[in-house]
Each structure stands twice: as structure tokens, then as C-alpha cells.
Amino acid sequence: MGKILLGIVFLALLIADPIPTMAMGRLDVGVSIPLPPVIEFSGPPVMVVIPETYVYAVSDIDEDIFFYNGWWWRSWDGRWYRSRDYSSGWSYYRSVPTFYSSIPPGWRNDYRERRWRGNQWDHQRVQYQELQQNWSTWEKTRYWEKQNSWGVQGLKSGTRSQQNRTTTKAKETKSRNNKSDIEDRRDRD
Fold first, then answer.
1. Cα distances (angstroms) measured from residue 56 to each of 127, 176, 182
2. Which domain holds residue 145?
């Protein structure tokens, strides 16, 4: 009977005063970053390659959703998110993606008006399946530069796109090196 009474007293103390008991454990603090709202698609999106880049944009919605280097990207509420799927699985990305500096702010107006830097832009719509199968090969073989200068009449092939690609690749390499340096420092500590 004494053991039962002692157990009841111990349990009562644990329930009545849990804070000191929990203080001996660990404390976890988390920061929650909200995910962007879901965008409903009636089917896989149709894309357009933004001239002088190898960045693809969903063309028929007002939200900027990009595809670059195997990832879907979108900005929402001042933050960037990426996913392997255009309609779900978005996760927070800590900085502005490197490709974004090559996207002119008025690209969507140019798309609607079928012009690029003052020239007629006969953009080619790219189906989702075609993009998924070819994006990597297209970039490696410089497919769009060889296809009538990105569909922009009068655009000299290889000028700005070559600079953008070189700048973007240099930024990506620097970013990877910085991440590697940080990981090396963590391993040493």
C-alpha cells in the first residue's frame, strides 16, 4: 500500500509541477515559414523560354513560376520557394536563385506584346512533357540559340545569352563553393 501511495504522490507532483521536470530535458525552438498558396492547374502548364536565358516560365498565369535546371521556382511574400513538381512540394529557399538576375522585370509584358528588347518575339510555347524530356539537352547543345535566335527577330545570337550563362554559372559555382566552405567549417568545429 505504501508503494502505491508513494507512486500517486510522485505522479501528482509531476503533473502539478511539470516545468522543472521538463527543464532538465531539451528545449526545441522552431521558426515556421509559411508555404505559398496552391495554384490550381487544369493540366500540366505550358511554358515559354525567356530569350537569352535557359529559364522557362509558365506563360498563361499571372504568377511568376519558373523552371530552371531541373527545379520549379516561385516567389511569394518576399521569399523564394522551389520544388521538383510544378503543383506541390514547395520548400523555402534561403536566397534569390542565381538565374533570377537574368530575368528582366518586364518580361511578362514583353511576352504579352510579343516583343523582346524592341524586336518582334515569335515565342514558341513548350509543352510540359517536352520540357521535362529535353531541358538539359537543350541547354547543353545551345538549342534555343540555334533556333532562330530565341524566336526574336533581329536579335544577334549568343550576345547577352552567353554573358548571362557565364555569369549564372559563375554565381552557381561560387554559391556551391560557399556552401562547401560552410560545411567544411562545421565539420572542423
1. 11, 23, 31
2. 47-183
Strand partners, 125: 48
Let me know if residue 26 belongs to a domain.
no
Assess if residue 18 is contained within a domain: no
What is the spatial distance between Cα 165 and Cα 4, in angstroms, rounded to a whole number?
Answer: 75
3-state secondary structure 12-46: HHHHHCHHHHHHCCCCCCCCCCCCCCCCCCCCCCC
Instruction: Give the count of domains, the chain.
Output: 1
Whether residue 95 is contained in a domain is answered as yes
Burial of 116 (0-12, 13-18, 19+ CB in 10 A): buried
Is 134 part of a structural domain of the chain?
yes
* Under 8 Å between Cβ of 152 and 116: yes
**Which tens digit of pLDDT belongs to each residue from 16-71?**
555 544 455 665 666 678 888 888 888 999 999 999 999 999 988 888 999 999 99
> b/e per residue, 145-178, with b = 16+ CB within 10 A?
beeebbbbeebebeebbeebbeebeeeeeeeeee
Q: What is the DSSP secondary structure assignment for residue 107, as one 8-state letter? A: H
